């Protein structure tokens, strides 16, 4: 099987024009590492098993692990409002943000905006970011619904700082990275802002024109706990092995007691991440493969992608890192190829649109907002719609009679994703919000011009 996996990996890297990639698989007590390509296009620096790739949102599992360490030491309780641990920091009257718990932050059920871009965001002060975030209006009532939130992990990291008395960067190193032997790096290190990250380069990959252009990885300082780490695929697999038996352990220390650590993978009832995963725990996304439940997380940072999956009961873990935007397609086709080779990896299958029929334009067109994230749905012809994001990602939208939709984006190598519109519970004939990529966005009354 390993020879076939190696061939699959190389074929996909070539087909996806991936400048460089790593694949690490732990199965049946053995670790297998595969690498291909270069760290930066136009150079001869080959990717090695130790090359550090940007993890993007996969960084969240390490911030979650820090919170679990505090829970194990009884420094915090996962279900106590975090405001109890934040000295002299209380939200304004009527703001529900102060009632959110650590478990809700880590499971994206805190009702916080996805991203919060105000002055504090561009500084490295998580204290200032938290103060500003706690004053924001929510996208939902804490503990009632799932809405993916980078801001929630910024607040979780500030919780770590408030309890330990150290900044998040120092705590991650002293409590997790150095003791465990993980070889991680920061895309942005607040302690040395001018330092050149010790990572591979990112790349934009345009498959139609077959062009590859190097780009620098960047993450806003206050969002580093949500997406600012880098490392190898093997580092991710070794971290995942901590959730298996003691015989599978690969780190120099136990991250936390197994019962505490597995809270990261225990399903949170309110977490229904439609379009993103089958469930969510206090840190891990949950993915089904047959009757097996896999822990996992996916991440992107401009110019790179990262995916990790862990089957604790099956003692299997794997991770893919790429330094090109086509890594999204790479991962999808890798999962399909591995399944054909006999390894059914836990992975969310985007729902296939059924009962296709165009929804009334006046019902769904408009702007949908979550913090700084905005989606415009415009009319495209008589019965077609167009989905667009401020960052340029856009594509035709197919709707169904049950208000589900799918969008295909040529800019992302033809990848597609699903979402759904949600009715206003007080006015059933009115659309109140949208769920897209795990995020809940409220519909605004702002008129949006048709593209027709």
Quick overview of this protein structure:
The protein has about 450 residues and is of the alpha+beta class.
Describe this structure in words.
With 452 residues, the chain is α+β, with helices and mostly antiparallel strands. The protein has two domains: 1-349, DD-peptidase/beta-lactamase superfamily (Beta-lactamase); 361-444, Lipocalin (Beta Barrel). It is 23% helix and 26% strand. The protein has helices spanning 2-15, 60-72, 102-106, 126-133, 150-164, 168-180, 224-227, 233-241, 258-261, 327-340, 361-364, and strands spanning 20-27, 30-37, 53-54, 185-186, 202-206, 211-215, 229-231, 279-280, 285-289, 292-301, 304-311, 316-322, 366-370, 373-379, 385-388, 394-399, 404-409, 415-424, 427-436, 439-444. An eight-stranded antiparallel beta barrel has the order 13-14-15-16-17-18-19-20. The chain has a seven-stranded antiparallel beta sheet with strand order 2-1-12-11-10-9-8, sandwiched between helices. The longest helix is centred in the middle third of the chain and has 15 residues, at 150-164. The model has no long low-confidence stretch (mean pLDDT 88).
